[in-house]
Amino acid sequence: MEDFDYEQEALNDLDYRSSNKGPWKKIFKTVLLHKGLAIGLILSVIMLATLDVCYPLLNSHAIATYFESDNPNRFNTIWLTVSAYIGVSLAYGVCVFSFLYFAGRVEVETSYELRKEAYLNLQKLPFSYFDKTAQGWIMARVTSDSRKLSEIISWGCVDLLWGLLSMFGILGVLLVTNTKLSIIVLIILPILIIITFFIRKKMLSSYRDARKENSKITAAYNEGFMGAKAIKSLVIEDMCSKEFHSKAHAYKRASLRAVFFSAIFGPITFILCYVGVGVTLYYGGNLVLKDLLEASVLYLFIDYTIKFFDPVISISRVIGDFQQAQASAERIISLIEEQPEITDREDVIEKYGTIFEPKYENFEPLVGEVEFKDVTFKYAKGEEVLKNFNLHIPAGSSVALVGHTGSGKSTIVNLICRFYEPTTGDILIDGHSYKDRSITWLHSNIGYVLQTPQLFSGTIMDNVRYGKLNATDEEVIQALKTVAADEFISKLDDGYQALVGESGSKLSVGERQLISFARAIVADPKILVLDEATSSIDTQTENMIQMAVERVMEGRTTFMIAHRLSTVVNADVILVMKDGCVVESGTHHELLMKKGYYFELYKNQFAEDALQKILNN
Ligand SMILES: Nc1ncnc2c1ncn2[C@@H]1O[C@H](COP(=O)(O)OP(=O)(O)O)[C@@H](O)[C@H]1O
Ligand SMILES: [Mg+2]
Q1: For the domain 453-524, what is the CATH superfamily, name and number?
Q2: Which end of the chain is flanked by fewer CB atoms within 10 Å, N or C?
């Protein structure tokens, strides 16, 4: 039964009763990107509906010609009738084929376009969007919503169009053939439509209730099993069971109601249909007996009355489907139209181009001087993380940021990378506000290594090359050698061409990190950012990376956030952060001499390490 498909829908879809047409307009526009297909589909549906209406006419004509008339020559033209039947059958075949073909293609193309648009827009959205939007939500939009919509847009619209055309086609023919008898159909029709829609609505709403109750039960199951220990220790088994029982009962009631309405839907439309046929037969039959009507016309009316119900049912179904898909439509359009919070100004785009069409010829070379000028910053949610923050880093320095979790280290590098922008104040790069240059200009000069390396399926070479798409094999291999990754790569069967698996699953985290390191430096970035790049790997790999970092840092401005202080002792300047402020700064040596906060941090970690060593032995 088709209605069980709806079980798949997310619960929040179900309360949707808005009639906002906005998203549909946009989705239709997407369909019209392929005008030829849309026109082909509409034409084949029109043809199909016409044939559906014509077929009984042909039968009726045959009855009138061969059974009602006693003209002795009436069989002379039988070849005409036979050819007409053959013609209609062939036309049917062609129509059904082309309608299936076009509807299928419209479905595929629409789903492709929606996904493409959503994907393109996702590329434009800044880091902050992915911070606040669950990955699962985005995945569901580009997969299930786009599929659901393209399905309803193609097959749903076809059903709707076909339903309307055949309904009005049939009515038209009836009115022309016999106005009086048509009035019977015209009286039954509204009753039929109202009852059909009513039952269907009841059916859908009871399914909706059942699903709501079901999700309550799932939640109760979760609590009951996950919290089994707590429930037992609190001795509330009895209360929990009663509560569960009442939920289960509500679910049962709602489900039974749904079953009742879906069971009754078919028979009721069936009965209505045959009541219609009965009434037509009664009146029409009387007219035939009185010789006021030909039997062939009566046949036509009966056939049409039966045929009338299919379009009504299919229209009511499609309208229900559209309502169900409303939420999907709104969500996918919201994804397609989501505006990035961080964008380049018009004049900047004019000069430097967009993400997809950068004007590299206008990009100034980046030197690497970074300055925070009176920067205050807060995330969309939460309080100020930085307040009147000032910092000047000369080009080519290596900067280490240390401090407890939550002290604002990542925030600083996120701001430098322009993943976020200062709430007030400005960040200057090479003496210019970075908003005066394009985001692409900045990003093409920054190498960024995160705590958890992100690889993509493909070979090791491919993964490094994402750092610079036109890098030669030599450059890629050189980058891998610089980070001392060649050592483990030489042990792999396929060497540099080894496949890394989905998200790099075939490699260890440390190996993945070495590759993402190589990726960061193959582009020869002027600013290199390492945000806890070594915290998720073992000490041995960490030492290897440490040596690589020293080599790579030369000639670049490097921001290094490290959990382990031993890795930052060689930095030109160490910034010690606390609650969004730099509380101390200087070289490792200077800071130790100060005997301040850094000294404490260092001492504590030293003691911790020593303790760890003792515990490990
Ligand atoms: N995306 C975010 N949205 C809201 N608050 C955030 C976000 N990221 C970090 N914060 C908050 O900003 C503060 C600084 O965080 P962060 O810069 O990540 O610190 P660190 O990298 O030093 O551990 C913390 O209080 C943290 O809770
Ligand atoms: Mg951090």
Answers
A1: P-loop containing nucleotide triphosphate hydrolases (3.40.50.300)
A2: C
